[in-house]
Specification:
The chain has 121 residues and is an all-alpha fold. The chain has 2 helices and no strands. The longest helix is centred in the N-terminal third of the chain and has 36 residues, at 2-37.
């Protein structure tokens, strides 16, 4: 009787310890997997559509998977934004240069005020 209680007690403790160890191992594997998935650069790519039907216009099969970690077609949204901003700034500057170089009519109002009366003191 005492031997059976000791045996069942040891079995209960062995089951608890093995269950606890399997939970810890599963958590470590899960954390490792999540860290790897956080390295997927798709959400910051210029070709990412954020649509579940077509996630990427260049590589739709490997989009948002672990295969996309080293994607050779990755182009940052920030790079595209900066490029577009640079084009806008250069376009604005060229327009300003055209206005000041005589391409567009001058906006100088002093020439338009010919019949202006002199001011009295």
């Amino acid at each position: 009787m005492l031997l059976s209680k000791l045996f069942f007690g040891l079995c209960a403790w062995a089951i608890l310890i093995s269950g606890f160890c399997s939970i810890l191992i599963s958590m470590k594997k899960g954390i490792k997997h999540v860290k790897k998935l956080h390295q997927v650069p798709c959400s910051g790519c210029a070709y990412f559509t954020n649509d579940y039907r077509l996630k990427c216009t260049v590589n739709p099969i490997m989009a948002c998977t672990e295969d996309a970690i080293g994607c050779p077609d990755f182009e940052s949204n920030q790079m595209v934004t900066d490029t577009l901003r640079g084009l806008t700034i250069s376009h604005t500057l060229s327009m300003h240069q055209n206005q000041t170089s005589g391409f567009f009519p001058s906006r100088d109002n002093s020439k338009n005020c010919v019949n202006k009366k002199p001011q009295r003191r």
